[in-house]
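Example record

The entry below shows one chain as it appears in the dataset: sequence first, then structure tokens.
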Amino acid sequence: MAKNRVFATGRQLSLVPTDPANPASGDPVVVGQLGGVALTGRRSDGTVTIALDGVFELPVRGVDGAGNSAVAVGDIVFYVAADTPKLSKKNTGVRFGYALGTVTAGGTATIPVRLGY
């Protein structure tokens, strides 16, 4: 067995998020270019337990870089730190996962999102 393995699966890790700095449990977060969902709030050392895979119901906005754009099942979802909500089809953000629900163009809806890519 390899002696340099740090974690068996890496499905959830305690990391310091890049954005947001103080997430609540259930919030989408990023650590650099790594997207996930906070499972805990921020600890005194700045770390948050972050899920890096799975499917979570998250708010997604029906926009892309050109404006309003409907979200379809299977569309790539990106995390844009400056936006509210953070998730949309704007490819200027961090690649976050895949939509498993639909959102109307210009609308916002909470839909299942599969983390990772």
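Notes for this example: DSSP finds no helices and eleven strands in the chain. The CA atoms of residues 2 and 8 lie 11 Å apart.
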